[in-house]
């Protein structure tokens, strides 16, 4: 009988190959996101272009509300979230959460009303629809109303309506008199004859969207994972900023828009991009002060306690140096 015994050197090589294959298995990373919107373009690009995969990460973007995301992140059921307003709200009350990167720093929201509402001040005694009272739109609504001499709850009734399609429908059916909408619903509102009451991208407000939030323990104890996730996300961020045509295609697929609507959505959001995925100290302070005023937190802790952009700054420098 012919011997079929495998030579020792072949077994060694086979063992090495199998070991490499085992080591190359992707690490599962769970990320909580509040919606499918242009604010998530950096993460969509990082997935679609294979940037996460190149870092050995299998990233799952999971739709969930801000409070649920915070709870899951604190319980370590998620590695990251993309809900900075909810995270800051929880952090000022003691949650161990840090914002370490942000794609946008201006609020990508517009206020629309029924045709009989002339301006923001005309909302006195009316109803304003928002995604949720504790959400980014709830925070914005409270601040904007205050700037126009109105108090949420006393002068204007805030109604938690839910997702953007529900806010749009609530305005159309006059369940509410006005609402805060983001793209693409802002364009649909114009097409339907809703009155534009306010363009929040032009207000002097700092409101983070598309931001990476992490548990302090993860940042401290799982640094390699954080670095890999940030590096891939920043590659997605730069790709989305620098490649308009491909970014529009990525947005169309992930947000389920036609090409024309995706292009309009991308273009109105582009000016709100941060320069390098970070914010300076003044912008950080403004972002935190907004949350403090809205949530009536006194005294407000130092803003440095809630932000750490050092790793993102380093990665941005490395990526730009490669080009």
Describe the structure in your own words.
There is one protein chain. The longest helix is centred in the C-terminal third of the chain and has 20 residues, at 223-242. The chain folds into two domains: 26-105 and 207-322, D-Maltodextrin-Binding Protein, domain 2 (3-Layer(aba) Sandwich), CATH 3.40.190.10; 110-202, 3-Layer(aba) Sandwich (D-Maltodextrin-Binding Protein, domain 2). It has a five-stranded mixed beta sheet, with helices on both faces. The protein contains 14 helices and ten strands. It is of the alpha/beta class. Strand 6, helix 6 (136-147) and strand 7 form a beta-alpha-beta unit. Residues 1-23 have low confidence and may be disordered.
In short:
Helix content is 46%, strand content 16%. It contains 14 helices and ten strands. It is globular, with a radius of gyration of 23 Å.
**Radius of gyration, whole Å:** 23 Å
So, CATH architecture of the largest domain? 3-Layer(aba) Sandwich
Count of distinct structural domains: 2
Helical proportion? 40-55%
What's the total number of strands? 10
User: CA-to-CA gap between the ends?
Assistant: 61 Å
Number of helices: 14
CATH class of the largest domain, named: Alpha Beta
The outline comes out as: globular
SS strand fraction? 15-25%
List keywords for this structure.
2 domains; disordered N terminus; 323 residues; D-Maltodextrin-Binding Protein, domain 2; five-stranded mixed β-sheet; alpha/beta
């Amino acid at each position: 009988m012919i011997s079929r015994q495998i030579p020792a050197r072949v077994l060694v090589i086979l063992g090495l190959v199998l070991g490499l294959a085992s080591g190359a298995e992707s690490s599962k990373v769970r990320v909580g996101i509040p919606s499918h919107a242009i604010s998530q373009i950096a993460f969509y690009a990082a997935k679609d272009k294979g940037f996460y995969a190149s870092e050995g990460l299998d990233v799952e973007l999971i739709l969930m509300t801000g409070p649920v995301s915070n709870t899951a992140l604190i319980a370590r059921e998620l590695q990251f979230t993309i809900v900075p307003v909810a995270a800051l709200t929880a952090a000022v009350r003691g949650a161990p959460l840090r914002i370490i990167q942000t794609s946008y720093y201006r609020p990508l929201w517009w206020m629309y009303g029924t045709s009989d509402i002339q301006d923001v001040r005309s909302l006195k005694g009316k109803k304003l629809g928002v995604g949720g009272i504790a959400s980014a739109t709830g925070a914005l609504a409270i601040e904007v109303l205050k700037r126009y001499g109105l108090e949420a709850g006393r002068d204007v009734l805030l109604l938690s309506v839910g997702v953007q399609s529900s806010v749009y429908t609530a305005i159309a059916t006059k369940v509410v008199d006005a609402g805060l909408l983001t793209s693409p619903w802002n364009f649909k509102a114009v097409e339907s004859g809703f009155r534009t009451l306010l363009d929040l991208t032009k207000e002097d407000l700092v409101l983070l969207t598309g931001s990476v939030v992490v548990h302090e323990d993860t940042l401290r104890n799982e640094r390699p994972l954080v670095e890999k996730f940030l590096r891939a996300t920043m590659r997605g961020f730069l790709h989305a900023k620098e490649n308009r045509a491909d970014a529009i295609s990525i947005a169309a697929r992930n947000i389920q828009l036609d090409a024309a609507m995706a292009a309009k959505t991308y273009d109105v959001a582009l000016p709100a991009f941060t320069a390098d995925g970070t914010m300076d100290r003044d912008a950080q302070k403004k972002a935190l002060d907004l949350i403090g005023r809205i949530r009536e937190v006194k005294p407000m802790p130092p803003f440095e306690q809630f932000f750490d952009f050092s790793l993102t700054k380093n990665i941005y420098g490395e990526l730009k140096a490669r080009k």
